[in-house]
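Page 42, continued from yesterday. The earlier attempt failed because a stray header line got pasted into the input along with the sequence. Redoing it now with the clean sequence only.
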Amino acid sequence: MANLLVTGGAGFIGANFVHYWSAHHPDDKVTVLDALTYAGNPANLRGLDQVDLIVGDICDTALVENLLIRHEIDTVVHFAAESHVDRSITGPDAFVTTNVIGTHSLLKAARKLWLDAGSGRPHRFHHVSTDEVYGSLGPDDPAFSETTPYAPNSPYSASKAGSDHLVRAYHHTYGLDVTTSNCSNNYGPFQFPEKLIPLFLLNCLYGRNLPIYGDGMNVRDWLHVEDHCHGIEKVLQAGRAGETYNIGGGQELPNLTVIEEICVTVDQAFQEDASLARRFPDAPAASGTPSASLKTFVTDRAGHDRRYAIDETKARSELGYAPRRTFREGFAQTLAWYLANEGWWRPLIERAAQAR
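This time it went through. Structure tokens are written below.
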């Protein structure tokens, strides 16, 4: 039996991990620490009555120390982060505070309780990072591996790179048992509707424009969030201390291809379910118009990386990791979840509209 502290566990990836871990490891105790900023939502943990949600800031080192003691934590899974690139361009301070200083706060608490206190308790500090720390690839460049030099291009990716270096340093300097995973673009249930896939999905339902940056040919590797959780599980179970593992979805696609898949899948859903036209009368698909009619091209964002791709050979060979879904399968499941959970996302849309 393990006792986990999951930081950012009320956010998108963190909440999916808590659901995944609770289902696959029901005897383990999970405590969530989340500041419940705009992207953290207690509703993401609904149905997990056995999980303790602590509202607090990872920068509060004393709070973290108290949680490690009180809940006898032996495993930290660190998701808490500011993660939206556009927000990092307009307001980078919060990214440095949460992603760098917050990660250091957690590491200090873990070192104090697990090492300096001399308990001898076996432990693991797993840090969840991103492929964006590696920078941008050319069209013919090999995919990112764990040995690719860091070259972050946005305040977001720079802050994540800083946190990755701190985690590595705490292993090599102090002997803290750490692992890091760098993942590709996640999608799936509970994703806050500012990211591409939920934003465009919901815009199709509302009949709003689909704003495409630049020429739409920026390439990303897409990873269903449950496949990501499966990868983290593999790292926690068999990852070697001090090592980094890249977790990808094996679905390297241009944004235009992703957007076309969203439009086609939404249109098919309306064709198969007549009730959707009544629920979402503003959707082009409600009147038989293709959702693709909403596509519009806008000025590219500053510092927009051209291509990301993940080489997950190390995770496959050492851990037995492999993604279980194609993008088409994963997005169909994601659309079905959003259509079945309007009560989850509609309040978020309404709050965002009121804040404008």
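Notes: Residues 3-184+225-248+304-325 form a domain with the Rossmann fold fold (CATH 3.40.50.720).
Reminder to self: strip header lines before submitting.
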